[in-house]
Amino acid sequence: MKKAILQKIVLSATGVIVALLLFLSPGLKIPVLDGATDSYFREAISKGGISYAACRVINASISIIKESSLHLEPAGVGLSLAVGQALDPIDDMTERLSDVLVTAITSLGVQKLAYEIGISLAPPVFAVFLLLLSVLVWFNSTKLIFLHKTVTRFALLIIIARFFLPLSSIANDFINTNFFAPQIDEVSKQLAIDSKEFDKLKDISLPDGIFGTASFLKEKSGDFKKALAAVANNMGGMIESLLQLTFLYVGILIIQVLLLPLLAFFFLIKIVNALFDIHLPAEVLHHHMNHPNPEREETC
Question: Domain limits of the chain?
């Protein structure tokens, strides 16, 4: 008897002390786990932002070129050379890639926000459950025992919810580091090399009303043709790089937005079934397997 009471005293006191520590430690972080999670979100959002900025620079350069024209007016004869019409495919690809990047960055931002909310709310909520358990441990009523089990299950769910997102982020980081990041870096470097020719096109411009010798005009026209030819030669490589980046970021989105959440839902359902002793998905499947067509059974 004394041993049972001593156990209850130890459990109740431990629960109260831990609950008070949790109340006094808002935003408590786990050094290794949360440190890796913070690093993952920071680097992933930063790399996504860099890729998005590079796309916007290319898009802005194309817009400037497409909206500009080279005006040469030798001896009163006007000549207007419109440029950039051949850059429509690259313009479209940068727009598509920008949309994918915005979606990816938004997804990371929402996950980071949910993670930070979990850090802030999990300790006090778990502390409340611990205080309830510290009180309920003293009662042996059947109804209170059921309440005790229910509170214990919800406390376990809080722990699962607190640790799930950091663990999934570490899994994401492992996949990104070993598969996506090397390919994204390589394609981004190649895209930066190919897009340098846009600067040459932007620099070759003449104000209206310039009068010069035929040799000056010929030199400028020759530089313009060379720059435009260089862009045309690199167009295939740029489109290929933009396509590869789009595919890679779509793959990241599929893993972050679809695959991991679905796996999380599956495992959470399994955990909830184990904690609350229910089998909701299995019951639904069992019902449909036993009664595939009720109307047909009635007619028979």
Answer: 2-277
Residue 42 structure tokens: 């920071």
Tokens matching residue 197? 């020719």
- Rama region for 76: left / alpha / beta (φ>0; ψ in -120 to 50; rest): left
Distance, CA of 236 to chain centre: 29
* Cα 14 from Cα 40, distance rounded (Å): 35
The token pair at 252 is 């990241």
Specify the DSSP class assigned to residue 71: E
> Residue 5: which of 130, 140, 127 has the closest Cα?
140
pLDDT digit string (tens) for the chain, length 300 residues: 677 788 788 888 888 898 888 888 877 888 888 888 898 888 888 888 888 888 888 887 777 666 654 444 444 334 344 455 667 788 888 888 888 888 888 888 888 888 888 888 888 998 998 898 888 888 877 777 778 888 888 888 888 878 878 888 888 888 888 888 898 888 888 888 777 766 665 555 444 444 444 454 555 555 666 666 666 677 778 888 888 888 988 888 888 767 876 777 677 677 777 776 766 454 433 444 444 444 444 444
pTM: 0.68
3-state secondary structure of 80: strand
Query: If we measure between CA atoms, which residue out of 207, 194, 201 comes closest to residue 85?
Result: 201
User: How is 119-137 classified by DSSP, letter by letter?
Assistant: HHHHHHHHHHHHHHHHHHT
